[in-house]
Amino acid sequence: MSSDPTNAGPHRPLKIVWIYPDLLSTYGDQGNTIVLERRAALRGIPTETVHLRSDEPVPPDGDVYLLGGGEDRPQILAAQRLRNDGGLHAAVQRGAVVFAVCAGYQILGHEFGGEEGQPLPGLGLLDIRSGRGEQRAVGEVVGDVATELNVPRITGFENHQGVTHIGPNAWPLARVVAGVGNGGGDGTEGAYSGRILGTYMHGPALVRNPGLADLLLRWAVGAELQPIDDSWAGRLREERLNAVLTSG
Amino acid sequence: MSDLPLRSQLAVALGRTAAKMSRLAGKGDGSVIGGKVGLKLDPELLTRLAKDRKLVLVSATNGKTTTTRLITSAMTPLGEVATNAFGANMPTGHVSALASAPGARYGVLECDEKYVPMVLRETGANVVALMNLSRDQMDRAAEIWLLAGKWRKALEASPQSHVIANCDDPLVTWGASTARSVTWVAAGQHWREDSWCCPECGGPLDRQDTDEDSDWRCRQCHFARPRPDWVLKGDQVTAPDGRMFPLTQLALPGRANKSNAVIALAVVAQFGVPPEQALPLLGEVRSVAGRYTTVEHENRHIRLLLSKNPAGWLEAFDVLEPAPGPVALSINAQGPDGRDTSWLWDVDYRILRGRPVWVTGERRVDLAARLEAAEVPFTIVDDIEQAVMAVPPGKLDVIANYTAFQNIRTRYGRVV
User: Fold this and answer.
1) Which residues form a coiled coil (chain B) (predicted)?
2) CB B342 to CB A34 under 8 A?
3) Helices B144-156 and A72-85, packing angle to 10 deg
């Protein structure tokens, strides 16, 4: 969390911007900022985290932007404000990393479903379209990540009624092994394009997926990272994968 | 009771039999199954049982059971009070509570937040107490903004109901503000992460950021904190007539229970019980369904605290013995707990630094990962007994979520 340049070592502080915790933070979303800060710190990379309220302008100079989950109304408000603000678009053009979960994932796309399921315009930063499905998907989700990303199998908890279709300019984050994911019938979960990555694993999705956290950090610092012990997060990951994959 | 239609009387009788059999089989107090049988035979049973009684509904994310108990205690001067004292807070539990007290002219019913509209419609309750709304068990509970919107519609359609609402919680205020008559209570709000935005227009809320002053208003629209009729400040309650009462007689610990108590005072005042009469009765409540109970085991004095969500943890931390007093945490993720442990990341555990921390429960590894990230040293154990025996004789505070709490309670004696 130090922003003191004398402690910065070989790196300037990595700037993490948590977008709109007043709107997009329903259930443990803060965990993603904590995991990124911690895994950077263990490698001697200082970080500076901004908890950005929705009445503040989006700083365009962030390295990693995080968007969490939210109810229908806050999701709509967040999309409107981010479209009007333009700061996130500027950051993406600069090559910033974006990681979004659930409602945040949906608003990165061209459109998403509103309170009555009506299509509403998203940010158009990721080539996906989302709408409302018939049933709510609630439960553990496991997926095998696209080989290009070099990230081990992901594990998380999903809780959404969204259905997301991936366009030609984005790629599935993972193939679903257990759970629902994007729910469009193609067996995919999440999507990515460039350094923008979204998932239906909600809340603190990076906690159980240190490999995914490290992918974001690698993108942000532009270099390979030294390996670290995943410790309790690693054990949690193993425990959850075992619990889900052996329960039938 | 005797003027119930025959079918309803039968429904009540069979419900009671089912409840009794359930109790004999050792499956809890039987109030859910009893109510289920009754409602099956007579779907309008709740309406019939509520008729000609003065009813209070009590709802919130946190503090429902405790406040129901406090109100019930303070209403004893009025005569017999029917109540669902053990947290069976859906219509099945309400039917059982009312059916088992046929002569009671008053009823105090804890009500699950989602069921407020339905129970209000069926009972036409005279008083509705609404205290707080915050994130809770997202895999099964409703989203809270949506929930408050449903309260608004239900209260608009129930003009005879008087509402007692905590105006320090913006979402509760919004949920209550369609009621025809409201008593606003400044009962405090410590968990604020779910109320930074105006529930009316989505604009930013400007808030006083102290425990002493909870004023708030929207920067963009007219929505603002109503002028409170009752005010809680520290240990002091100011009544609508300006008289002040200390809450020092309260036996239940912590600021959350002071909030619950001031709501209870406002509710019973509505029925003519003045604060000076109610306060000693609130003081008689020492534990609620095992919460705040101290059990003795091998010279350890184990105090049991229930916390089910981030706002609840904040209140549990508020009543802990000062550091370096040891604490044991137990987390499960069964149905009633919510199967999703993401909320652990909304709790700021750093406050536990500087004391021995023991971690157990079915999801202890989730908690271990959380505490490690918060740089809180801890010891993980397979069950609570290992933690209890590892601390020296003396005090141990235990914070657990729902089924973890019930397990510990069963193990060390069900003191109510």
Assistant:
1) none
2) no
3) 120
Assess contact for A100 and A67: CB atoms under 8 A: yes
Pairing of strands B162-166, B106-110: unpaired
B369 touching chain A per CB within 8 A: yes
pLDDT single digits (tens) B127-156: 999 999 998 876 656 688 889 999 999 999
- pTM of the complete model: 0.89
Amino acid at A34: I
Q: How far apart are the first and last CA of chain A?
A: 42
**For B62-90, what is the mean pLDDT?**
93
* Distance between CA atoms of residues B179 and B186, nearest Å: 18
Question: What DSSP assignment string belongs to A134-173?
Answer: EEEEEEEEEEEEPGGG----EEEEEEEEEEEEE-TT-EEE
Active site residue A160: no
Q: Do B346 and A30 touch (CB under 8 A)?
A: yes
Q: Which of B207, B340, B197, B138 is nearest to A76 (CA)?
A: B197
Supply the DSSP symbol for A187: -
The answer to whether residue B343 neighbours chain A at the CB level (below 8 Å) is yes
Would you call A235 and B369 a contact, using CB atoms and an 8 Å cutoff?
Answer: yes
Q: Does the annotation list B198 as a binding residue?
A: yes
Q: Is A17 left (phi over 0), alpha (psi -120 to 50) or beta?
A: beta
One-letter amino acid at B66 equals T
| Dihedral over Cα of B27, B32, B35, B39: its sign | negative
Cβ–Cβ contact B382 with A under 8 A: no
Compute the nearest-CA separation of B402 from chain A (Å).
18
In degrees and rounded to multiples of 5, residue B274 shows phi and psi of: -75, 155
Q: B397 forms bridges with which residues in the sheet?
A: B303, B327
- Kindly tell me the sign of the dihedral angle through the C-alpha atoms of A150, A155, A159, A163: positive
From the CA of B94, how many Å to the nearest CA of chain A? 29
In angstroms, rounded to a whole number, what is the distance separating the alpha carbons of residues A153 and A151?
7
- For residue range A169-197, list pLDDT tens digits in order: 999 999 999 999 999 999 999 999 999 99
Phi, psi of B254 (to 5 degrees): 90, 160
**Vertex B187: Cα angle to B186 and B189 (nearest 5):** 105
**Greatest alpha-carbon span in chain B:** 64
List phi, psi (to 5°) of A22. Answer: -75, -15
ipTM higher than threshold 0.85: yes
Q: Which residues of B participate in catalysis according to the annotation?
A: 340
List the beta bridge partners of residue B308: none
Domains, chain A, with CATH or none: 5-246 (3.40.50.880)
